[in-house]
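A.,

Following up on our hallway conversation. Structure tokens first:
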């Protein structure tokens, strides 16, 4: 699918205990189908390998992994609302290492939207084909 006005919203959440708050905001803003990935910041990875970053390990503590949430939509106004609400809740991620969020354009995408179904022998339908096929 060619991405007409498609955008992706990425939220890197350094407070994984607050994941549900973010997901609730996404739902309030009619954004569904988000994907959540466990992630880790570069400084956390390097703190055990590079002497300069090893000094930061005390500051970083034994943090849980971050959560990176992303979703795609063709309605940028939904992203604007969600970002505003999340920014308010997280004080614009002003604290160092607290998180960030951004949007990027999506030029092409496959697998978005409602599933289509294909008729199988015996009247069963399987994912993958629309009724027109």
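Then the amino acids I'd put at each of the 133 positions:
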């Amino acid at each position: 699918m060619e991405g007409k006005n498609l955008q992706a919203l990425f939220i890197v959440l350094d407070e994984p205990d607050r994941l549900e708050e973010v997901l609730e905001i996404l739902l309030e803003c009619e954004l569904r189908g988000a994907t959540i990935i466990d992630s880790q910041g570069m400084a956390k990875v390097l703190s055990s390998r590079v002497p300069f970053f090893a000094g930061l390990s005390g500051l970083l503590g034994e943090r849980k992994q971050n959560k990176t949430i992303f979703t795609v939509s063709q309605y940028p106004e939904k992203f604007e609302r969600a970002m505003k609400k999340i920014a308010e809740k997280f004080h614009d991620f002003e604290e160092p290492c607290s998180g960030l969020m951004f949007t990027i354009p999506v030029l092409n995408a496959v697998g978005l939207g409602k599933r289509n179904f294909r008729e199988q022998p015996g009247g069963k339908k399987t994912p993958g084909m629309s009724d027109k096929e």
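The radius of gyration is 20 Å. Curious whether your intuition agrees with the design.

B.
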